[in-house]
């Protein structure tokens, strides 16, 4: 084995329901503006010609049930509830049938966002990295296998903060379906097992502060929870 100058980072993994083995995380693709009502609340239109994405590092992953500090560099920290897709087999330049076959399973997730930094970057036509890709910003539950979950349809997706519902929609409200997203991404990337797709958030996003507890649900999946501590 080749020695490294510094310790090699630990590869993040996610639990799988009913399995002893965990799913390694590779890339995290996040879909922007995939619910029309959320795009409207952000003051933008849905691009119906093609989906668009931003990426998070695999080191952004944090498991559901964690307590994390309020992040640095922001005073407007937002939750975004998401339906997450885990890829389970290699796929490249797929049609929608092959794209569906490449899906391993689904999870609930949170795309945590430094909204002030994101909006500042957007106004200056700069990348969103500071607002989106930072430590512990991709929260995820255990994964449920596709065969166990069944068809995606009218499942409810909702989130509460301190027991008060803030986001509430249906998976049928997705502008771009899961097979469409996987097919589209596969024409730009060789998708591999462990790639995750956060499929977008419904309307109702908003700020959270230290002491808040977030809980998100998608019908048929484990909940995702997150508690916020004080800033470091």
Automatic annotation (TrEMBL):
<protein>
    <submittedName>
        <fullName>Isomerase</fullName>
    </submittedName>
</protein>
<dbReference type="GO" id="GO:0016853">
    <property type="term" value="F:isomerase activity"/>
</dbReference>
<dbReference type="InterPro" id="IPR011234">
    <property type="entry name" value="Fumarylacetoacetase-like_C"/>
</dbReference>
<feature type="domain" description="Fumarylacetoacetase-like C-terminal">
    <location>
        <begin position="28"/>
        <end position="224"/>
    </location>
</feature>
<dbReference type="Pfam" id="PF01557">
    <property type="entry name" value="FAA_hydrolase"/>
</dbReference>
<keyword id="KW-0413">Isomerase</keyword>
<keyword id="KW-0479">Metal-binding</keyword>
<dbReference type="InterPro" id="IPR036663">
    <property type="entry name" value="Fumarylacetoacetase_C_sf"/>
</dbReference>
């Amino acid at each position: 084995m080749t020695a490294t100058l510094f310790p090699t980072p630990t590869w993040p993994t996610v639990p799988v329901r009913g399995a002893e083995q965990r799913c390694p995380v590779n890339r995290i693709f996040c879909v922007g503006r995939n619910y029309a009502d959320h795009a409207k609340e952000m003051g933008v239109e849905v691009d119906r010609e093609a989906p668009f994405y931003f990426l998070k590092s695999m080191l952004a992953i944090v498991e559901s049930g964690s307590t994390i500090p309020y992040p640095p560099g922001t005073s407007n920290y937002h939750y975004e509830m998401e339906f997450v897709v885990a890829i389970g087999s290699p796929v490249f330049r797929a049609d929608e049938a092959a794209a569906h076959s490449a899906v391993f399973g689904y999870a609930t997730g949170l795309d945590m966002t430094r909204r002030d930094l994101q909006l500042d970057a957007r106004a200056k036509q700069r990348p969103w990295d500071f607002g989106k890709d930072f430590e512990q910003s991709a929260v995820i539950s255990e994964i449920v296998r596709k065969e166990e979950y069944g068809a995606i349809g009218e499942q409810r997706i909702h989130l509460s903060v301190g027991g008060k519902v803030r986001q509430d929609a249906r998976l049928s409200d997705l502008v771009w379906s899961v097979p469409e997203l996987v097919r589209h991404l596969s024409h730009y990337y060789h998708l591999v097992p462990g790639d995750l797709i956060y499929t977008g958030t419904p309307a109702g996003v908003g700020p959270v502060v230290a002491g808040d507890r977030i809980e998100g649900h998608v019908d048929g999946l484990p909940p995702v929870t997150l508690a916020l501590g004080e800033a470091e």
